[in-house]
Design a protein that fits this description.
alpha+beta; elongated; about 260 residues; Arc Repressor Mutant, subunit A; 2 domains; single chain
Length: about 260
């Protein structure tokens, strides 16, 4: 079926599209240079902007670029993750100027309109288990994003992409609920005992709101590492929390009477 919108109209008014999508829509062969030539002309006229090689933004589009849709145009396997996934789910305290996404195929950072798009290679455990897509959802805009519980675990695994432990703790405070079983399933795939300690400690800080008690809490306690784990990096001033066999910053440590500050 022939497209009802002309090539020029579609290109200049679409908020985000790729060269391959244009070729498929207008049935142009890959080796044909006609699409590239038309895009070059539209770009010179200011009617199309190039986000990066093969990815474009309509210069006359009335819809702004959805930053969380960009990774899917950069890599077909892209999954929005870490702090960007918290933002997408509406449980972040702030919006960063970097969008993080997972992809098996790494690439250099892409910067567009002041936003940096940074690819992260997933942990080897996921790839070995062939569970790269584990607990991943797709939105109506076809944005693939990690579920909330997996996102928290990923952030604890790569704190540098979460904004730090304080930022992550603040995000967890915004969760209306937490699926402990989903988190445990993901932790089982990763096989990193120290993550049980990290997540269990943070959940304890919000235990009353999230109903973290009884069997759910015991399931985490049974899987703690044998050695001492660290909530962040090793540094002076950390305090040991024996319940979780975890060293944590002084400001997050339980008080002497056992109450965890929030």
């Amino acid at each position: 079926m022939k497209p009802t919108v002309s090539f020029t109209q579609y290109a200049q008014s679409s908020p985000l599209f790729t060269l391959d999508e244009l070729r498929e829509r207008y049935r142009k062969k890959t080796q044909s240079r006609s699409v590239r030539n038309m895009l070059y002309r539209l770009k010179r006229q200011g009617r199309v902007r190039q986000l990066t090689k093969g990815v474009y933004v309509g210069g006359l589009s009335t819809t702004s670029v959805n930053r969380y849709a960009v990774p899917g145009k950069l890599r077909k396997d892209a999954i929005v993750a870490f702090h960007s996934a918290l933002e997408f789910h509406g449980v972040a305290n702030q919006v960063f100027q970097t969008v993080y996404y997972l992809s098996v195929s790494p690439r250099k950072d892409v910067i567009f309109d002041g936003v940096t798009y940074h690819a992260v290679v997933p942990p080897r455990q996921l790839l070995r288990a062939r569970r790269f897509d584990f607990q991943v959802a797709s939105s109506r805009e076809k944005v693939r994003v990690t579920d909330r519980e997996r996102t928290v675990v990923d952030c604890l695994m790569f704190l540098g992409y979460s904004g730090g432990i304080d930022e992550l703790d603040g995000s967890l405070a915004m969760f209306p609920s937490f699926d402990f079983e989903a988190a445990l399933q993901y932790l089982k795939v990763l096989r990193m005992p120290w993550l049980y300690a990290r997540l269990g400690f943070l959940l304890d800080r919000h235990a009353e709101k999230l109903f973290f008690r009884g069997k759910s809490r015991d399931d985490f306690l049974r899987r703690l590492p044998r050695g001492v784990a660290y909530l962040e990096r090793k540094r002076l001033g950390n305090r040991w929390v024996p319940t979780w066999n975890l060293m944590v910053p002084e400001k997050l440590a339980p008080s002497r009477d056992g109450v965890i500050p929030t």
